Amino acid sequence: MKNINSVINRFGKNLSGFIRRRVTNKPDAEDILQDVWYQFITAGDGEPIEEVGNWLFRVARNKITDSYRKKKLDLMGDLLYSEVGEDELDFKDLLFDDSGNPETKHLRNLFWKELQRALQELPEEQKNVFVWNELEDIPFKEIAESTGENLNTLISRKRYAVLYLRERLMILYEEILNH
Questions:
Q1: Which of 96, 110, 123, 178 is 20 to 30 Å from 36 by CA-CA measure?
Q2: Cα-only R_g, the chain
Q3: In the CATH hierarchy, which top-level class contains the domain 2-79?
Q4: Angle, CA of 92, 96 and 99, to the nearest 5°
């Protein structure tokens, strides 16, 4: 236990700062930091960690990446909500499949290109709010403070953007399913 405390004392502040610079949402950053420490504490069950500092920062980077993937998966769930039967293709799973399958990679690239096109079709205010809040993870409160816009106006703009994007991306979804 003494060794764990010395590692936390030695790397805690830098590790926390590292995570906070990459994750704008403070509660998410704190959750990631806790996950890193938990993984460190439970890693003692396996092989010893030789370069503790490098190991901690690598785990933190992986946790941050996982957090962004989850955020994007939640976003896709919002944009592509549909009831999927047992035998049907779940488009969200396809988009975040890391198997390296060339067809899956092609479909994922097609989706992101189509999302970019659809974003360009939105009114500038809707596009900006959607990008800032969903893709850059900036809270509505911060957007309201920086733009001077009313919070409810921003929420409404994002809602209209989501509705449009959902409809627009469903066209791609249907084309892929029927191809």
A1: 96
A2: 20
A3: mainly alpha
A4: 130
Q: Which numeric CATH code is attached to 91-177?
A: 1.10.10.10
Q: Which residue has the tokens 């596009």?
A: 127
Cα–Cα distance, 11 to 94 (Å, whole number): 38
Q: Which of 88, 89, 91, 68 minimizes the C-alpha distance to 79?
A: 91
How far, in Å, CA of 12 to CA of 1, rounded?
15
Please state whether 46 falls in left (phi above 0), alpha (psi between -120 and 50) or beta. Answer: beta
Record the pTM: 0.49
| pLDDT value for 7 | 86
Domain boundaries along the sequence of the chain: 2-79, 91-177
The length of the chain is 179
**Structure confidence at residue 86 as a pLDDT band (50, 70, 90):** very low
Contact 64, 30 (CB under 8 A): no
The pLDDT confidence band at residue 5, using thresholds 50, 70 and 90, is: confident
> Same topology for domains 2-79 and 91-177, yes or no?
no
The structure tokens 């930091």 sit at 33
